[in-house]
Amino acid sequence: MTDDEAEGRDLGRQMDAATDAIRAAALRLLQGGGVDSQLVILAAARVTGELGASAALADGMDPEAILGDLADFVRHVGREHAKTLQAETLPVAGNA
């Protein structure tokens, strides 16, 4: 395994850990019933934007460029997740 491959795997594990932690926090809010689901989504979007802008400025980058890329990524991931969910709920031919 090369150093780049090892670094890629480590970054992937970090990404998975961060994703799992954020997802768990959102689910706790939703399952607790005290926060409307649309507000949880808006809060997640707000934090995403704030983090993106902060990271861009910290790295000396243009926040607009980073935020545009971030919006494209969110759209892509959302569409892919929707396709996955729809495929899981559609009846399989012959099983309907």
Number of strands: 0
Average pLDDT rating: 90
Question: What's the total helix number?
Answer: 3
The Rg value, from CA coordinates, equals: 18 Å
Strand content: under 5%
Keywords summarizing the entry:
96 residues, 82% helix
Report on this structure.
By secondary structure, the protein is mainly alpha-helical. It is built from three helices and no strands. The longest helix is centred in the N-terminal third of the chain and has 30 residues, at 3-32. It is extended.
SSE arrangement:
Elements: H1 3-32, H2 37-58, H3 63-89
Helix pairs in contact: 2-3
Summary of the model, kept short:
With 96 residues, the protein is mainly α. Helices cover 82% and strands 0% of the residues.
